[in-house]
Amino acid sequence: MSPDFVSLVPRQASGWRVVVVGGGASGVLMALHLLRESDSQRVILIERTGVTGCGVAYGTRDPAHLLNTRVSNMAAFGDDPDHFLRWLRATTDPEACPFSFVSRALYGRYLAETLANAPGRERLTCLRAEAVSIVRGASGVTVQCADGQSLLADSVVLATGHKLPRPDAGAALSQPWGASDDIDPDGDILLVGTGLTMVDQVLSLLDSGHRGRIEAVSRRGLLPQPHADAAPASIAVEEVPFGAPMSRLLRWLRDRVAQEQACGVDWRSVVDGLRPHVQALWQALDPGARARFLRHAVTRWEVHRHRMPPASADRLNRAMQSGRLVIRRAAFVGAERVSGTEVLARIRSRDDGSEEIRNFRRVIDCRGIRRDPGEHAGPMVHDLLASGQARLDPLRLGIEVDADCRVIRADGLPHAGLFAIGPVSRAAFWEITAVPDIRAQVAILSRSMAKAGQSSHGAGRASAEKEGVS
Do residues 301 and 315 share a domain? Predict the structure, then answer.
């Protein structure tokens, strides 16, 4: 069951109003926490598709696409870690295990149903519309929608998530978020990228009965590591070399892993133990150090940090052993569509520098979702950047926000009443794409907003009583 959507926001009683732009995982988590933190705050959730909880990550319908985080870490509320597990046992599998990896489509359903049944649901309005701009005025922030509707709010939260490239039917590169049932089952397929998006594509191809060769290329040819049973190591704040040069920081991490492995502890324990400190580590780096990390170390970090479920790893290993899947260290130079079913791709080997041009039935872009936020901005973010109400960070990871998630304007000052959460705030927090991290972020922000709403409500009531207004 999903929340009911309306096409127009009905007239509502006065009260503190928050508009959340985006109904994917980030937006739903924000709405849930806002409803939970206040019994008077009114929330309007704007989603263009009219579907909540899905977005890029959980919009897949393929049951082979699994969460890359265990059930025990995916609850909507950090102080109720069994919330998702209880839902699974009540709706899907009475024997659900907290350490299992379930389908992403199932998780999208969980978020939608949790929102539909949330306490305080009467204070939530789900609007099917596309927000295109905002204007700050004396009485608050006005959100303008593509259909001409205007919404006045006290605060606006951008939860626009990952932006996808605009579809192009004639493009040489296919995008990985569509159906694969129209691919020639005997044709060779090239996957550009060897991360988690590639893993999903391989599993979808195998399940569709594809019989041709699947080749995946990336600069280093590294695959995401598989999950394994390993408790997070205890890493105290004072142990972490915040602000150290990147070379020293990486040396410290390697030494810490070696120390733990000498005691029989898995490297995953160190990576997971470092997770609570990652955002602070990122924020302590200067722009140059961040750029060096992105240029030299990000791939190795991500294949160890963002791991794949054991079941997915087993299937990939079997496909490689049988020769169905080949992973290569190579650079994708470019591609040209020569017909409706043929694409010529140019690939440069990272081993000897030689180039080859090969014919594939499909070339699929699996390089992930970290794309230029200016080039791929939606209407709302595009307008914010054009009007100076927001600016991109120097590395073009996302729009700039401060430690309180307030959007930074072009003049360097925080925008009163405009916040950003989830992937769109990645420039400030780096690790803010996984549910546990977003959940912690929205919990803090929703508490802050609830306090602001209570203060505003109290001031308004006192003013009304003074003027004899009831």
Answer: no
Contact of 60 with 105, CB cutoff 8 Å: yes
- Domain of residue 154, CATH code: 3.50.50.60
Q: What's the structural domain count of the chain?
A: 3
Q: Are residues 157 and 216 in the same domain?
A: no
**pLDDT tens by residue, 31-45:** 999 999 988 889 999
Burial classification of residue 151, based on how many CB atoms lie within 10 Å of its CB (0-12 exposed, 13-18 middle, 19 or more buried) = buried
pLDDT category, 167, cuts 50, 70, 90?
A: low
Q: Which residues pair with 143 in a beta bridge?
A: 134, 151
Residues 391 and 454 in one domain: yes
What's the pLDDT tens digit per position in 17-75?
999 999 999 999 999 999 999 888 899 999 998 888 887 778 888 899 999 999 999 99
| Burial degree of 325 (CB within 10 A; 0-12, 13-18, 19+) | buried
Whether 110 is in a domain gets the answer yes
Among the listed residues 234, 237, 201, the one whose alpha carbon sits nearest the alpha carbon of residue 216 = 201
Q: pTM (2 decimals)? A: 0.91
- Which residues constitute the domain of residue 441? 5-164+371-462
By the 10 Å C-beta count (0-12 exposed, 13-18 middle, 19+ buried), 79 is classed as: exposed
- The answer to whether residues 262 and 317 belong to one domain is no
The whole-angstrom separation of Cα 146 and Cα 241 is 48
Indicate whether 41 and 137 sit together in one domain.
Answer: yes
| H or E stretch at 355 | strand 355-360
Per DSSP, the residues of 382-419 read: HHHHHTTS--B-TT-SSB-B-TT-EEEPTTSSEEEEEE
> Is residue 242 one of the residues assigned to a domain?
yes
Q: Are 336 and 426 within one domain?
A: no
pLDDT of residue 180: 58
The torsion angle over the Cα atoms of residues 275, 280, 283 and 288, rounded to 10 degrees, is -60
Beta partners for 401?
407
Report the percentage of the chain scoring pLDDT > 70: 92
Q: Residue 238: which pLDDT band, with cuts at 50, 70 and 90?
A: very high
| Residue for token pair 């081993």 | 351
**Of 305, 321, 338, at which residue does a domain stop?**
305
pLDDT digits (tens, 9 = 90+) for 447-467: 999 988 766 544 443 333 333
- The H-or-E segment that residue 435 falls in is helix 435-466
Q: Which residues of 41-63 are buried (b: 16+ CB within 10 A; e: fewer)?
A: bbbbbbbbebbbbbbbbbbbebe
What is the rounded CA–CA span in Å between residue 291 and residue 216? Answer: 26
Q: Look at residue 230 and tell me if it is in a domain.
A: no
Determine the Cα–Cα distance for residues 459 and 456; give it in Å rounded to an integer.
5
Residues 25, 113: one domain? yes
Q: Please check whether residue 423 is in contact with residue 162, taking contact to mean a CB–CB distance below 8 angstroms.
A: yes
